[in-house]
Design goal:
two-stranded antiparallel sheet; two-stranded antiparallel ribbon; MetI-like fold; mainly alpha
């Protein structure tokens, strides 16, 4: 198979191999380190009988490769858990059982994931529009007052913590001007309008920080592209400056932007902890922090795997999109 289809297949295989490697590393780091793994997994409030039951479920008496095989089997086909009085089935992808809340980790994450995806997706749209647009304008107006003003704004945005921007927006936009409500998460399926309206403040808080980074990257990439020979050729043939910048230069400058956006989207699914905490959004990041506080090891492992999954898949999709836009990538 050749061409774009072959490229997609190679990227898909590479993503699967990467996900397998992540699962191995995560399992070894959390479940094969020195110490009483059963006690840590079960939690400090567990009785000796409960700790022994967890040790049996984790098969700590078996070799490491067999224990990992059991863990991988749960991810691929599911597995059964004994609760002491009954047997509970955990469907694939089974990420284990939280002994702190007596919930399946998969179910726990699925209740939090829509909140984080809503936050990150909306913020991503804003940071791309603001960041790429600002970077393009800054590169187009290089050496002029507009460029210096935009550069100063992006530097200030990069240096400002997200919780500062969030607090300012809440106090000014929400408190003083009463333009936006204090966020209360509403599911998209329940009321799309209220879903967007209530998330606008968190979107702006997260997007303004990321937009500054995208603006600087777009500007640098645009300036590099504008100095290439084919751009000078377009100008020599009398192609308008707006067309040169908006069509030809931007297309050549998008590669690093696409790569950065994929990485930011994947990592922000579990990394927008400050934004979720500031606005009281019950997302994956906030749940991960709570799991670390109470040492809920299965939840921590499940969250890390889910975040890794989104990072890998987002980067694979970004590679495919860029290859579709520039066929030279397929031939590389």
């Amino acid at each position: 198979m050749s061409g774009l289809g072959g490229f997609v297949l190679r990227r898909a295989v590479g993503a699967v191999i990467t996900l397998f490697a992540i699962s191995v590393i995560v399992y070894v780091v959390f479940y094969a380190t020195p110490g009483d793994v059963a006690q840590i997994t079960c939690g400090p409030r567990c009785s000796p009988e409960q700790v022994h039951q967890v040790a049996q479920q984790l098969r700590l008496d078996e070799p490491l490769y067999m224990r990992y095989g059991h863990f991988l089997q749960g991810l691929l086909v599911g597995q059964d858990y004994s609760t002491g009085t009954s047997v509970e089935h955990c469907a694939a992808p089974c990420l284990g059982l939280s002994y702190q809340s007596d919930q399946q980790v998969t179910d726990l994450i699925l209740t939090k994931l829509p909140v984080s995806l809503s936050l990150v997706f909306g913020a991503m749209v804003l940071w791309l529009v603001l960041g790429v647009g600002t970077g393009m304008l800054s590169a187009w107006r290089r050496g002029r007052p507009t460029e210096r003003l935009l550069t100063g704004i992006t530097l200030a945005g990069t240096a400002t913590p997200v919780f500062v921007i969030g607090l300012v927006l809440m106090i000014v936009v929400g408190g003083e001007l009463h333009l936006l409500p204090f966020p209360q998460y509403v599911a998209f399926t329940d009321d799309p309008e209220q879903w967007a309206w209530n998330l606008l403040l968190p979107w702006l808080s997260l997007a303004l920080i990321e937009a500054a980074t995208f603006a600087r990257l777009t500007r640098a990439s645009m300036l590099e592209t504008l100095a290439e020979d084919h751009i000078r050729t377009f100008r020599a043939y009398g192609v308008g400056e707006r067309s040169v910048v908006g069509r030809h230069a931007l297309r050549g400058a998008l590669a690093p932007v696409i790569a950065l956006n994929a990485n930011n989207f994947g990592s922000s699914v579990g990394g927008a902890v400050l934004t979720e905490t500031l606005f009281g959004l019950p997302g994956v990041g906030q749940e991960l922090v709570q799991a670390v506080k109470v040492v809920d090891l299965p939840v921590v492992v499940g969250m890390v795997l889910v975040i890794g999954f989104f990072v890998v898949v987002a980067n694979a999709v970004a590679d495919v999109l860029y290859a579709a836009a520039d066929r030279r990538v397929v031939l590389a």
